[in-house]
Design brief:
It is built from 12 helices and 9 strands. It is of the alpha/beta class and 267 residues long. The chain has 2 domains: 201 residues, 2-enoyl-CoA Hydratase, Chain A, domain 1; 47 residues, Lyase 2-enoyl-coa Hydratase, Chain  A, domain 2, CATH 1.10.12. The strands form 2 sheets. Strands 1-2-3-4-6-9 form a 6-stranded mixed beta sheet, with helices on both faces. A 3-stranded mixed beta sheet has the order 5-7-8. The protein is globular and about 65 Å long.
Length: 267
């Protein structure tokens, strides 16, 4: 692992921690972060030893979202034609929500400090959010005259409900940790010095589950958003047929009766 990497990748047992590693910009979503984060998601999907991913930010912030200086100076994506900007989003930052939506394992955001704009949206793309007690969230695009170009308008109502999503979007207000917990924006709020410890403990619990069944459980919940009940039941039946022929499913049952910890081998 190198300090120069835009996103560091560290594995401990079945848990991978991805750290946005550009603290000098408060982890603004740069092209390098896009490339590294999407590559990491692909790497995780191919590695059955991974059971859970924790995403966090180096330094004092989770992510500040877009680079405000680039907006001011009309450089990078902000200096291009409308057609180029559209394609820039599709082949740039929008690859992150697609990658995290398709990642096969459960994901936890460990939100340290500010999660603003696209940084807020990145936390919403995760299944569970741990927030430090000094964390703040903001769907702040209107503060700089923008719309959410990275999927926030899709993820936010699914996390906090439609009315709260409208409020956060229309006002751009910063939501402190206690209110974030109340609204369901944060799953847990913990002391900042305990943030990674608590997130890692949850991740280890999740990663201890049988690998194939765990990944299919996530897929069943995720795909159910766009399915009829009948289609979801059909998918569940097919998944049951698959997992009931795995070693790990039988091991889970045997271990239950023998009152011992199961030993899963990923097959």
């Amino acid at each position: 692992m190198s300090d120069s990497e835009a996103v560091t990748y560290a594995q401990d047992g079945g848990v991978v921690t991805l750290t946005l590693n550009e603290p000098e910009t408060r982890n603004a979503i740069s092209p390098a972060i896009v490339e590294a984060l999407t590559a990491a998601c692909d790497r995780v999907n191919k590695d059955m030893s991974v059971g859970c991913v924790v995403i966090t930010g180096a330094g004092k912030s989770f992510s500040s979202g877009g680079n405000i200086k680039d907006m001011r100076d009309r450089i990078g994506l902000f200096g291009k034609s409308p057609a180029e900007i559209r394609r820039g989003y599709q082949h740039g930052i929008q690859r992150i929500p697609m990658a995290l939506h398709e990642i096969e394992v459960p994901t936890i955001a460990a939100v340290n400090g500010h999660a603003v704009g696209a940084g807020c949206d990145l936390s919403l793309m995760c299944d569970i959010r741990f927030a430090s007690d000094d964390a703040e969230f903001a769907e702040s695009f209107l503060r700089v005259g923008l719309v959410s170009g990275d999927g926030g308008a899709w993820f936010l109502p699914r996390v906090v409900g439609l009315s709260r999503a409208y409020e956060m979007t229309y006002t751009g207000d910063f939501i402190k940790a206690a209110k974030a917990l109340e609204w369901g924006l944060a799953s847990y709020v913990v002391p900042k010095e305990k943030l990674m410890e608590e997130a890692a403990a949850m991740a280890q619990r999740i990663a201890a589950q049988p690998p194939h069944s765990l990944r299919l459980c996530k897929k069943l919940i995720r795909e159910g958003h766009a399915m009829t009940l009948g289609a979801s039941l059909e998918m569940a039946a097919g998944m049951q047929a698959q997992v009931q022929h795995t070693h790990d499913q039988h091991e889970a049952v045997v271990a239950f009766f023998e009152k011992r910890k199961p030993k899963f081998i990923g097959s």
